[in-house]
Amino acid sequence: MEKLAVHGGPRAVAPGTLKPWPPTDDVDRRMALESLEGTNHALGPNCKAFQDEFAAWNGNKFALTTNSGTAALHMGVAACGCGVGDEVIVPAYSWSSSATCVLHHNCIPVFVDIDFGTMNMDLAKLEAAITPRTKAVIVVHLHGLPVDMERVMDIANRHGLKVIEDACQAHGAKFRGRKTGTWGHCAAFSFNQNKCLSAGEGGMFVTDNEELLSKASRLWSFGEAKTPMESRDYHAYDLGWMYRNDDLGAAYGRAQLTKLDGYIAIQRRNAARLTELLQGTPHLILPTEFDGAEHNWYNYVLRLDMESMGRAGDLGFRDKILAAMRAEGVPPVRWQQFILPAMTVFQAKNGYGKGCPWACPHAAPVDYSLGQFPMAQKHCDTHFSVAGPLRAPHGPEATEAVANGIRKVMENLDQIWGAKGIPCH
Q: 80 and 162 in contact (C-beta within 8 Å)?
């Protein structure tokens, strides 16, 4: 028995062991300064270069740099021709943007439960969610684990559906040796600070289809038919937003892209070591890679086996466990804390007011009763993740310290059972 730090014992992870993400160096400083010293700080030369370099890195014909991954997802919905009353299938557990992007174009999200093992959409339930109004499927490669895209594309092709890959967390992840973002009709990536490729904020829309690129670019830039890199007439031909990126953010993204392959290799090594060290830890469910999948380990997601503890549904005890880990210096994160259909905007069915878009005469009734999504809810109630300790510049020492902290808590749960004074949040 070891005395837990929450009760005054020594910390497993010494202060200063964990470093902030992302690491920056002279490459970042040089490229950012060159952008600042330039004359175009809006959609400048770094934006065009970033598009070309990212498309080449990922294996796409076309790319548009955006101000967020959410914008890129909305562009995907528009590019795929989804409109008023059309249904778009989305996993029941993801970041909110995976579903709210559907509302942005007056479409109706239809949720499918997740597979507990992969945390991604349960493809065995996908076909049953397809109706005559279904126009597209948004496939989320959650936490950097790719979905079985061969199976998805087979289903989509048989039903005449478009596939939008939400690869916002999946930079460099692969299925059957092929990168995410190259399987569907189009895809979205995010460059928010916590992503594997950080530009502070930003994103990228990618596709191999020139018609989809054209539709996406009109939404991206005020509904205009020509981009700011072309000769514009400043005429809005479609409903448009302003989703473009800026030169400084693109310069930073370009600098980080030169290091991305190395970052992912570090994450994979550290994740493999963490898995090795946590094998056999009581009451802990480890993440896995299925056959053909190559995880990028954007997040290393663990689940607490509350049933084996005899504490099923005891969210207060779950929170005490995570508080004990924080006291050890482990940074456990409860990521998305609500399943998507439980969020108010979907339960109220009132996105734009007066019941729209669900009240639109072109829409059909959809059922968001929460009992349809038991695996998403179970995951939501039991998960936590560690990401920073797996990333550059951390090596095996940080990984081992974090593993020791997690094991220490899980092997001494009797010190938490009924203990007072441990915060729940």
A: yes
Report phi then psi at 133, rounded to 5. Answer: -90, -5
Are 333 and 18 in contact, with CB atoms under 8 Å apart?
A: no
Single-letter code of the amino acid located at 257: L
Residues 198-243 have pLDDT tens digits of 999 999 999 999 999 999 999 999 999 888 888 889 999 988 999 9
d(CA 318, CA 378): 13
Rounded-to-integer distance, Cα 30 and Cα 256, Å = 12
Q: Please state the φ and ψ torsions of residue 186, each to the nearest 5 degrees.
A: -160, 170
Contact 25, 32 (CB under 8 A): no
pLDDT tens across 275-322, in order? 999 999 999 999 999 999 999 999 999 999 999 999 999 999 999 999
Q: What kind of fold does domain 26-259 have according to CATH?
A: Aspartate Aminotransferase; domain 2 (3.40.640)
Neighbours of 165 (CB within 10 A): 28
CA 199 to CA 19: how far, in whole Å? Answer: 18
pTM of the complete model: 0.96
If you count DSSP H runs as helices and E runs as strands, how many of each does the chain have, helices first?
13, 13
Both structure tokens of 85 = 């009353």
AA identity, residue 64: L
Residue with tokens 């749960």: 413
* CA–CA separation, 348 and 346 (whole Å): 5
DSSP state of 144: G
Cα–Cα distance for residue pair 350/359, rounded to 1 Å: 8
C-beta neighbour count of 289 within 10 angstroms: 17
Partners of residue 178 on adjacent β-strands: 175
> Residue ranges of the domains in the chain?
26-259
